[in-house]
C-alpha cells in the first residue's frame, strides 16, 4: 500500500510538471477597422508558440469588454473610433482588475476621444491636427534603424540593434510616462518605436509601432519582440 501511494505521488508530480510546461498564454486578438495581410499575420501568430489565441473582429470586439472571459492578454490590432460608455467602463474595470495589453501598429490611432485608452497605451497618433496638437504622419515601405534603448528589459534582453522595413509614423504623441524599449533615428519617424507601461500591480501594457506587414511579420526579430511582449504582459517574463 505504501509503495502504491509513493507511486501515485510520483505520477501526480509528473503530471503537474507536464501541465506547467504545457500551460499556454491565452490571447484575444482584436482586429477590424483597418485592412491587413491576414495570411501573413496569422502565419506569424501560429508560429509564436506557447500561445493559444482567438480572434474577435470589430465592431463586435468592443462588446467583449462588457463581459470579459479572462484571457491573459489582449492584443489590439484594430483601428476603430466608436465605443459605448458601458464598453469603456468595462475596459477600465478590466484594467483595474488586471489584464495584459499589447497594442500593435495602427491600434494607436483608435479612440481619438478616449483619453483612458491613450494613457494605458502610452501615446496617440493624432488623426486631425489643430492649434493644440500636430497632425501625425505615415509613410509606407521605409528602411529604418531600430535601436534597443533599454537593454536590461526582459522583452528585448539579449537583442542587438537592427534594420527594419515597414511603415513609419511621425509626429505621434508619446506620453512622458512610458518606459522606452526601442528608438529610431530616422528623421521622418517618431523617436520611440516600442515602450511599456505598468498601469498598476496587475496590469502591464506594451506598444509596438512596426506591424504593417507582410514583410515584418516574417522577420524573426519582430516575432521575438511580439512573443516576448505577450509573455511580459502576462507576467511570465
Ligand atoms: Zn499600417
Summary, kept brief:
With about 240 residues, the chain is α/β, with parallel strands linked by helices.
CATH A-level architecture = 3-Layer(aba) Sandwich
Mean pLDDT: 93
Q: What's the alpha carbon Rg, rounded to whole Å? A: 19 Å
CATH topology name: Rossmann fold
Q: What's the CATH H-level homologous superfamily?
A: Class I glutamine amidotransferase (GATase) domain
Total count of domains? 1
Listed once per kind, the bound small molecules are:
zinc ion
Elements, N to C (H/E):
HEHEHEHEHEEEEEEEHH
List unreliable stretches of 5+ residues: none
Let me know the number of strands.
Answer: 11
Summarize the main sheet: 9 strands, mixed
How large is the count of helical segments?
A: 7
Report the portion of residues in β strands: 25-35%
Residue share in helices?
25-40%
In whole angstroms, the N-to-C terminal distance is: 42 Å
Q: What's the CATH class, please?
A: Alpha Beta
Spatial strand sequence of the major β-sheet? 2-1-3-4-11-10-9-6-7
Q: Given the helix and strand composition, which structural class is it?
A: alpha/beta
Shape: globular
Task: Please give a structural write-up.
Residues 69-233 form the ThuA-like domain. Pfam families: ThuA (PF06283). Residues 1-20 form the signal peptide. Keywords: Signal. The N and C termini lie far apart (42 Å). It contains seven helices and eleven strands. Helices cover 31% and strands 29% of the residues. The mean pLDDT is 93. A hairpin with an 8-residue loop joins strand 9 (179-183) and strand 10. The chain is of the alpha/beta class. It has a single domain, classed as Rossmann fold, CATH 3.40.50.880. The longest helix is centred in the first third of the chain and has 21 residues, at 2-22. The chain binds zinc ion. Residues 105-106, 167, 212 line the site of zinc ion.
Amino acid at each position: 500500500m505504501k509503495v502504491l501511494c509513493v507511486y501515485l505521488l510520483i505520477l501526480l508530480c509528473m503530471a503537474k510538471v507536464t501541465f506547467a510546461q504545457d500551460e499556454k498564454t491565452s490571447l484575444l486578438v482584436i482586429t477590424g477597422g483597418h485592412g491587413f495581410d491576414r495570411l501573413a499575420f496569422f502565419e506569424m501568430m501560429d508560429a509564436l508558440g506557447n500561445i493559444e489565441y482567438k480572434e474577435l473582429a470589430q465592431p463586435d470586439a468592443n462588446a467583449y469588454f462588457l463581459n470579459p472571459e479572462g484571457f491573459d492578454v489582449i492584443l489590439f490590432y484594430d483601428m476603430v473610433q466608436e465605443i459605448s460608455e458601458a464598453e469603456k467602463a468595462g475596459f477600465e474595470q478590466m484594467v483595474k482588475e488586471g489584464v495584459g495589453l499589447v497594442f500593435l501598429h495602427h491600434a494607436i490611432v483608435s479612440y481619438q476621444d478616449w483619453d483612458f485608452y491613450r494613457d494605458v497605451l502610452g501615446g496617440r497618433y493624432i488623426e486631425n491636427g489643430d492649434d493644440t496638437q500636430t497632425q501625425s504622419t505615415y509613410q509606407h515601405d521605409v528602411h529604418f534603424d531600430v535601436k534597443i534603448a533599454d537593454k536590461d528589459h526582459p522583452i528585448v534582453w539579449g537583442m542587438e540593434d537592427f534594420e527594419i522595413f515597414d511603415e513609419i509614423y511621425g509626429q505621434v504623441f508619446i506620453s512622458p510616462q512610458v518606459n522606452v524599449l526601442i528608438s529610431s533615428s530616422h528623421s521622418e519617424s517618431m523617436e520611440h518605436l516600442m515602450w511599456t507601461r505598468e498601469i498598476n500591480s496587475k496590469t502591464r501594457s506594451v506598444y509596438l509601432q512596426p506591424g504593417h506587414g507582410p514583410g515584418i511579420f516574417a522577420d524573426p526579430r519582430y516575432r521575438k519582440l511580439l512573443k516576448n511582449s505577450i509573455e511580459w504582459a502576462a507576467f511570465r517574463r
